[in-house]
Amino acid sequence: IALSNGGSLEVLKMLAEAVPVILLEEDGTDGSRSVDIAMKSNTAGKSSVCFSAQMPSESSQVSDRRGKYPLHIAANLGLSLDSVRTLCRLFPQALQLRNFQGETPLDIAQRCRSKEVIHFLQTEPFGPGR
User: Fold this and answer.
1) Residues 84, 114: contact at Cβ < 8 Å?
2) SS3 call for 28
3) Number of neighbours of residue 52 by Cβ within 10 angstroms
4) What DSSP designation does 130 have?
5) How confident is the model at residue 93, as a pLDDT?
6) For residues 121 and 130, what is the distance between their CA atoms, to the nearest angstrom?
7) DSSP 47-114
8) Which of 33, 50, 72, 110 has its CA at 20 to 30 Å from residue 90's CA atom?
């Protein structure tokens, strides 16, 4: 609710730190979780809340109903390299997982032309073909 109604960064951070599991709750009409909604808002501040040290690693290990994990979403939205690194650290196996379109996070990053993220995903030890 706080994300959908333009909650301040302070409120979002307080909620995420007080009850990290809240990021796993399904809030969206399409079954999205709070962490997905924050990333899709494409607001750096809101996304950074989800990548704080308090974010439960389980939130990076759950896909939406289209088979997209948070790493797929981050690559598609062109989120920062720091955000992508954090998601890789939390769930490195996502580098090899394909969404329902058959795309890995690297495929998506290549389509979106994020050079910094492409290079990182190509050289990450858990990446495709490794």
Assistant:
1) no
2) coil
3) 13
4) -
5) 92
6) 11
7) HHHHTSTTS-GGGGG---TTS--HHHHHHHHT--HHHHHHHHHH-GGGGG---TTS--HHHHHHHHT-
8) 110
pLDDT digits (tens, 9 = 90+) for 16-41: 677 666 666 666 666 666 666 666 66
Report yes or no: 94 and 62 within 8 Å, Cβ to Cβ: no
CB contact at 8 A, 56 and 20: yes
Q: In which residue are the tokens 């030890």 written?
A: 125
**pTM to 2 decimal places:** 0.66
CB 43 within 8 A of CB 6: no
Token representation of residue 20: 């990290």
Q: How far apart are CA 40 and CA 46, in angstroms?
A: 10
Q: Which one, of 124, 110, 111, 40, lies nearest residue 79 by Cα?
A: 40
Report whether 56 contacts 24 (CB < 8 A): yes
Distance CA 80, CA 83 (A): 5
